[in-house]
Design goal:
130 residues, mainly alpha, globular
Amino acid sequence: MFVKFLLACIAVFALWTGADFLFHGVILEEAYQQTAELWRPAGEAKMGLHALVVLMSAILFSAIYALLVSPRSVRNAILFGTLFGAASGVSFGYGMYAFMPLPYDMALTWFFTNLVEGVLGGLVLGFILG
């Protein structure tokens, strides 16, 4: 079971890293450029820390599912991922919007990014962990 859990963590991490690149590096690129005064310059970005945050999130996401969801199934994993993604999307997307002068479209995209990543992460967990 530990090997499957480790595989699930790695798979979710890889999926979320790729999705982050797609959403933040491609889809939202122009929005980030238009709000450049809010972000660290590229040379000062803490990409190592970001990778660690995504890895820890993938591990915790997988652990919550593995330890607390029963019975484990693809259906329940997708439901778990959907709820997790929606909760984190509301917290991150709209939480940041409440305090930062962000364009609304960015907050909405952050919400949907988290939702999509949650659903896809749940799908991965469902196939690997059952």
